[in-house]
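pasting for the record
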Amino acid sequence: QVQLVESGGGSVQPGGTLRLSCVVSGTSIRSHIMRWYRQVPGKQRELVASIDDDGNTRFGESAMGRFTIFRDNAKSTVYLGMNRVRPEDTAVYYCNLPILDVWGQGTLVTVSS
């Protein structure tokens, strides 16, 4: 059974930094695109960032220039680096393995002073 487990969420002040992790078990991520999404209650889930098997990255408009995404295939882990965070980054962040349509349980990020 494929499982994705996110961690690293928490409370951070505006302008701060946070790193989220997504550990994948039950399959190798080596050949797969991995994605991070986020969702605020009452709103649609939003794509934050994706990384393909060659390490090519894409970002949603809100994350561009502030967030990074990288992967460690040996550890079956994908990371989301969040820099210069803003209150509007407050959301539950989800890791996704699109080829199998598997999602993690989410990790809450709260940006507040």
